[in-house]
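Dear Dr. H.,

I hope your travels went smoothly. While you were away I took the liberty of generating a structure for the chain from your last submission, since the lab meeting agenda had it listed for discussion. I wanted you to have the full record in hand beforehand rather than looking at slides cold. The sequence, exactly as received, is reproduced here:
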Amino acid sequence: MKGDFKLATQKDSLNVRELINEKKTTLNINRFVEAVVPKFLLVIATISIFTTLGIVFTLLFETVEFFKRVPFVEFFTGTVLKPLGQNAQFGVLPLLMGTLISSLIAMVVAIPIGLMSAIFLSEYASDRVRRVLKPILEVLAGIPTIVYGFFAFTFVTPILQAIIPGLQSTNILSPGIVMGIMIIPMVASLSEDAMSSVPNAMREGALALGSTKLEVAWKVVVPAAMSGIIASFVLAISRAIGETMIVTIASGSTKNFTFDVTQSMQTMTAYIVEVTGGDAPAGSTLYYSLYAVAMTLFVFTLIMNLIAQYISRKYREEY
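The corresponding predicted structure, in token form, is as follows:
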């Protein structure tokens, strides 16, 4: 009996030692993981920062080289862009005009439709209808932009030509309208999220005071969610400014400085596509103009994003 008791005691002590060793091993592994994971996450986080810095410095160095050849004032005040030939002229205003007009047309289309869609989804639609309509609406954001470009060129433009006499086969109106259709999901989805975050107590209080549902939507919910709504507008504008394939296909490559939306115009993104796809020898002024235009576009979109962040932080309502 004593021998059996000693054997059992030895086995129990061995099991306890094994458990202690396993616990120590587990603790060591956990300490190693806890020490390594933060450093790994830091490396992952800094990749995006270094990528952004690399893009900025690449654009900056090449842009500086361009402005050594073309005066800064001439570039930003010139109304003629003729990058080819002996007497080349590099005025960026035609590209700026095309970009701004196409973006303005897109917002004229996207803001009313997107905002109305957001109000319906937030204030009028039932949960079942919202679960069906919102994903369908967001499908528009998943369509490739080149498809939108051919849609604008082969479908929208012929319809507009039947309505507007003198509309050219390539114009800035058609791609502007189609870009507006493309960014409707961005406006609608972000605005609907902002409206849905408004507490129901505010709605119920307004209804209790005798307001109609439409008055609650326009006079209570929309003002309370205004920061998110305006931020969605600004982000949609920056998306329209950076659009490439729609304007490349449907707006043409004519570098007109005009306010006539029926004429062919070129945007900054379309010019970048044209230069990169053409015969621009490395080291030429035409080659460096690509980076100058890209830097201008980068600054535009950066300003739009900063404005959106500023509006969101300054006018955000805390409930």
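Two observations you may find useful: Residues 112 and 184 are 9 Å apart (CA to CA). The chain is about 75% helix and 0% strand.

With kind regards,
E. W.
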